[in-house]
Prior knowledge:
InterPro entries: GNT1/Glycosyltrans_8, Nucleotide-diphossugar_trans. By secondary structure, this protein is α/β, with parallel strands linked by helices. Among the domains are: 111-222, Spore Coat Polysaccharide Biosynthesis Protein SpsA, Chain A, CATH 3.90.550.10; 333-403 and 429-520, no CATH class. The chain is built from 14 helices and 9 strands. The chain has helices spanning 11-17, 45-57, 74-82, 134-143, 154-161, 177-182, 199-205, 239-247, 262-311, 318-330, 337-359, 366-403, 411-453, 458-540; strands spanning 34-39, 63-68, 86-89, 113-118, 122-130, 169-170, 189-191, 197-198, 218-219. The strands form 3 sheets. A 4-stranded mixed sheet has the order 5-4-7-6. Strands 1-2-3 form a 3-stranded parallel sheet, covered by helices on one side. A two-stranded parallel ribbon has the order 8-9. The longest helix has 83 residues, at 458-540. It is elongated. Mean pLDDT is 75; it is low at 1-27, 92-101, 311-324 and 405-428.
Amino acid sequence: MRLVQAWFVLVTLVLVLIPSNAVSGSLHPTTDEAYVTLLYGDEFLLGVRVLGKSIKDTRSTKDMVVLVSDGVSDYAMTLLKADGWIVKKISLLENPNQVRPTSIEDLFKCRKFCANLKHSERLNSGVMVVEPSQKVFDDMMSKVNTLQSYTGGDQGFLNSYYSDFPNAHLFEPNLSQEVLKSRPVPEMERLSTLYNADVGLYMLANKWMVNESELRVIHYTLGPLKPWDWWTSWLLKPVDVWQNVREQLAETLPGTGGGSNPNDSFLVKFLFLLPFLALGFCYYRSFLKTREHLNSLCNHIRHLYYKIRSFGTISYSSVSTSSTNNLNYQAKIPVYLGGISVVICFMAALVALALALAIVPRQVMPWTGLLLMYEWTFTIFFLLFGGYLRLIYQWGSTAALQAGSPSSHSDSRDDDSGKGHHRLTSSCDFANWYYGLVMAFLAIIAPSLPCFLGITALFARLALMVAGGLVLASFMTYASEHLAIRAFFRGLEDRDAARKLIKLNRDFVSDNEEQSDLDDEARMAEAVKKNSRLDFVSDNE
């Protein structure tokens, strides 16, 4: 069964909404019967293309006519003509509904007016069969300003005009011609659910109320869940069939195969590569800083070597010094830092999610959209929250500068504090990676869990996503607080370590000078000793 997405409306409905002199051009029909759909913006172009592909797949010989409004671009009309549509430009006042038809050739057996009944008493204008009639058109135009419309548009007007439609007989396409000729032509007939299956009803029971193999039309009544939007495929199972038809679209114009948009194709490649380029640049800068750090570390090791050579083994009191420093630093951490960090973390996540939704094109393939969504959400979030942690780090450095160094005692303690600084830096970097990777893992698992478990019901999927989101939110609360405290703590430590590094450099220069003096004295003593030996030998001779 092949299903497609678009709007299926009738010429009569459109003429009801516009004066006859507003229609211009020629339809160039080849048959007396046609599939007619409406396009009022390029956003829905893909839906019309998929509709045409599904009609062709049923080997239909009927014309395909698309009524386009002023909001449709010339490129869209050219593409539709290349796909085999007869394009008719009109001025419209109302929007049609969406449907997904398969082979519905038997609907042409409807002789006057056929539509589907929804919610027990309402005519639905998503799928209709109408025999064009000047008499009916004139009658509608005379009542368009007097009859009430509960929707304010075409569907409400049609329900008022065909007020007795709930009592109409069911359309029976399999009746023989003899039986049809023996009966009077009904003014209206009611289509079964097979011709207008509401996806909203599918959501409630996670199955169709009729035999799925006999479905003719699937009607998408959920506003934000259009089948061409990449996120809909991850929520509604019936969209899979629509996507299968989309993938088979021919490349009637360059870059349009599989429902692709040439402009979107370039944008997708750019969006995919940009975060990786930014990541590479950040790693390059990090490498330069790491190289400088290694140079400082080498100088520190050389300094320790000269101290050991000059004064012997150095004693360490790392535990006591580290404990003292930790107590001093913890006393300086603001009590409200954790709460502020949690709020900033969730705000950064919401902003990242909103910006990613705005950046990623809506009509890309489902997997492409999901990949770009994750990529840009993570990138924006880590930039925002990482920038916040950088500010907290600077705050800690400023606090240490104002309060002064908490520990500046003996040389041995200075050396040990330097070791503690390097150890803290390493653990803090590890903590950043740990919290970041766990948050990324939970962010991927939370929306993907229903797919992994094979759950297709929309509400069950949403419930699992909400449960996963709560787990993610709990971990984000814990991680944001600890990362902020670590950043502040690291700022305090690094400011103190910077002072110690200056002192170590001074000591290094001083030790070099002392070592040079000692070497000079040793050489002089050796020379004196050698001269004394020479004098002693000379005296003996």
